[in-house]
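Weekend entry, working from home. Most of the wet-lab plans are on hold until the incubator is repaired, so I used the time to fold the two sequences that have been sitting in the queue since the last round of cloning. Logging both here for the record. First:
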Amino acid sequence: MKALDIALDLAASGIPPLPLRVGKVPFGNCRRCANNACGGRPNMKTPGPCACPRPCHAWAAATTDPDVITSGSWRRAWLQAEAVAYHPGGAGMTVVDLDNADAIAWAREHLPATQTVPTTRGEHWLYIGRMQSANAVRPGVDIKSTMAYARWLGFGTGTMTALPDAVRALAASKPAPVGPPPPTATAPAPAGGGQCRHRTPAFLERGIAMAEQRITRASEAVHTTVYRTFLAVLSTHGQCGCLAEDHVARLFTAAQAKGETARHCTDAWTNARNRLGL
């Protein structure tokens, strides 16, 4: 069965596909979108800063729109494709990627049975429900859901069951990587041994408040405004560790009040981080 035919079957089932090129990796950004200069959003039904018609945004390019899948640039990609992938989170699914026999044995002991798909080295366990993806949550185990892609290897066997709390807990309790801490950029300390200004509560609070105001006042191009605001906040505060979850939540809340989806907020935030190399 040809890659394009598989993709159309998946799309009809509500599973957004994308082509993988030689090496089983997504097609790279085109010249226009290199280094996410476009803002990093694909040509999907949920609009965003990027209107690129090519499948060049990895998982974010996955779509169930047959007109996009069969368009000229996509059709050429399917002809070159070495494999077909899909965005599990876009289909409301989570894949627990078990990379070896030990990981499979662990899953059989600790996770509820569900639909299982054999892979080259192990198995994919498919659950109904989406969550944030995470790699190496334990030896040989990755979680692929939102903002990730998985190879399409068929429907496998068994009945798909609800995403268990045990899988969510794996991502929440993922251990910190072993090794020296990454270098961080700090502002020069003022004379007298003062702290980094980014960690001064008033400086940070003022920056977040101004960002909220900028989003709230946007009367047009809201998608672009949200992305650029996130980029500005991260360029100032993203490298010194002063941003907390409640700060990010405030920005997301302001964006959603202007009609943005939670998914777009997450995408825009991730694209801004990637643009800055964070």
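Second, folded right after the first finished:
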Amino acid sequence: MSTYLTIALDLAALAVPVLPLRAGKLPFGNCPACKATACGGRPVMKTAGPCECPGVCHGWAAATTNPRTLTSPPWRQAWEQAQAVAYHPGGAGLTVVDLDNTDAVTWARQTLPATRTVLTTRGEHWIYLGVMRSANAVRPGVDIKSSMSYARWLGPGTGTMTALPDAVQALVVKEPSPASAALPVISVSARVGGGKCPHRTPAYLDRGIAMAEQRITEATSAVHATVYRTFLAVLSAHGRCGCLTDTHVGRLFAAAQAKGEGPRHCNDAWANALTRLGL
């Protein structure tokens, strides 16, 4: 049994979902059945769990605590080639603040409450009790790894874990960027004709926007595709009458960004939907 598999089984016994990493701190690639999400990306959800196929697939979503899965033939081969052990912090109820350099570590010591600390090759991991949305580059040299993410296991660390503070959660709450503020609704309405809205009551539009927000918020896989299809549906119903406002589209963009979509992805999806409909 490889050293990495031994470590993985010990962590799994502590209810920490684990997976092997290959060279470059990268997950193993998907099997042919899951390559390019040919399987539909079913395992890519907020909670980890092995793919329906027997392989070590879908990155962080492959993380598991099941010893039978960890020691199965496909996984055992991966462990023999592994260069490190990773774990899914969100699946273990944790959030990792990844501090990638000395400046980031200095900032954390001056700003964040003390918690368990793990030394890394370039900085430190600060580990808190609690789960939140993951995000990269929330400030120079600082990444957040929690839900839908993985972190390299570098040992138990030192210190006592404390509850996830508001100061960490606030790092992923950003003011709207100029790109997201420049919503294309006004130009779309003018180009489409600005005619009277054919809908009988404003409540019809509000209900449609609320349903679109819910569809994006509840997406557990293929978020990019869900956002695009939702934008397409909204524009199909409301894009030609001029009833959409910046507020309506701002709500849709906000829902998409809450799922991890960046302003550029939102604008691209909106523009692509416009082009598809010939607006």
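Plan for Monday: verify the second prediction. The two ends are 60 Å apart (CA to CA).
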